[in-house]
Amino acid sequence: MSGSSTIDVPSEADALLLSRRPGVEPEAADFELASVSVPAPRDGEVTVRNVLTSVDPYMLPRMQGRSSYASPFPLGEPVAADSIGEVVASAHLGVPVGSWLISPADGGHTRPWPAVRLTWSIGRSAIRWRG
Fold first, then answer.
1. Phi-psi region of 120 (alpha: psi -120 to 50; beta: other; left: phi over 0)
2. What is the 3-state composition of the chain as percent helix, strand, coil, each rounded to the nearest 5?
3. What is the dihedral of CA 3, 38, 50, 9, to 10 degrees?
4. What is the pLDDT along the chain (131 residues), one digit of tens a residue?
5. Global pTM?
6. Which CATH number is correct for 5-128, 3.30.565.10, 3.90.180.10, 3.40.50.2300, 3.40.605.10?
7. How far apart are CA 57 and CA 74, in angstroms?
């Protein structure tokens, strides 16, 4: 790994799964919290611990299984939603541990991401990280 560094990385984390199709409005019973393993980041990846996940109204048709500009979320799988999180392990020289990123999360609270798919937040502004 190039530039490998870590802080308090769990071996398991929670993932928010879509357990059933919601009706008019999503309810807590439409989701399930599952434990998933957290692999170490490979070269060029970072592991992000998400602290905030955005579940937005535009996602409802996908949760309900309706066709839209994107395919429906599969049942039993993590809900794909953008999240804000802290880098807790890095195998990328340009993204240090402790950085805050916007990641295209898949419902998991902690997981490795290729650094090229993340947005690096600096203060109030954000720039696309190009690796």
1. beta
2. 10, 45, 45
3. -60
4. 445 555 677 788 888 889 999 999 888 899 888 888 888 888 888 888 888 888 888 889 999 999 878 889 999 988 888 888 888 888 888 888 888 888 765 555 555 555 545 544 433 333 333 33
5. 0.69
6. 3.90.180.10
7. 17
